[in-house]
Specification:
This protein is an alpha/beta fold and 231 residues long. It folds into 2 domains: 181 residues, 2-enoyl-CoA Hydratase, Chain A, domain 1; 29 residues. Strands 1-2-3-5-7-10 form a 6-stranded mixed β-sheet, sandwiched between helices. Strand 2, helix 1 and strand 3 form a beta-alpha-beta unit. Helix 4 crosses helix 5 and helix 5 packs across helix 6.
Length: 231
Amino acid sequence: MIRTRDDDAVRVVTIDRPARRNALRPEDLTALRTAVAEADAPVTYLRGAGEAFCAGADLDVVAALDDPASFARAGQRTARAIADAETVVVCGIDGAARGGGVELALAADLRVATPAATFAEPGVEFGLFGAWGGTVRLPRVMGEGDALDFALSGRVLDADEALRTGLVSRVVDDPRSVANAIGRGKPDALRAIKRRVRDRRDDGTQEEAEATAFADLVAEHGDDIAATRGV
């Protein structure tokens, strides 16, 4: 079950299956994709209910799949919706993130952990691997060496090691406070920054798009910019 609540500049999206450690079924992936794609708030804050962030795919569902590739593609579409959302997606991780839970977090713009957060890709222990875009995003975020060590070993990273490897950007007691702080930025500036940083085109094309976006923002916020001179 996916719950949403709009709170000023932040849409809070909660994965709410605490009895199953927020493991995801196909219908949950669809609902999560919709909740993020339809967000009007400048920032979306993604969290899990209870003592875990997300255990990934519901293995009871996986064991009964007639078309495993379809389920993998559904997870990929949801991760892509998070990565491509107009809103800035901040993932607050408190407790366990496992398998697909890590992969969805990888798609977010910021991953902010509490000291109680832990991370693992345990699928290798029973013959699987992360197929919701994890093999694509993991080396981009952690670097190839740490990504291979993390995925091949199945070992658990605590919050401090996740911070060291770049898997998370901050470790704080209240990740929601980070989402709130980002939400105080100008929405069009937030969108422009996200688009430019996530642009995968060649350097020259990216730089031209960056200059254009900068000019658009100066035109839009010229009065505010002038008011800050000398501050």
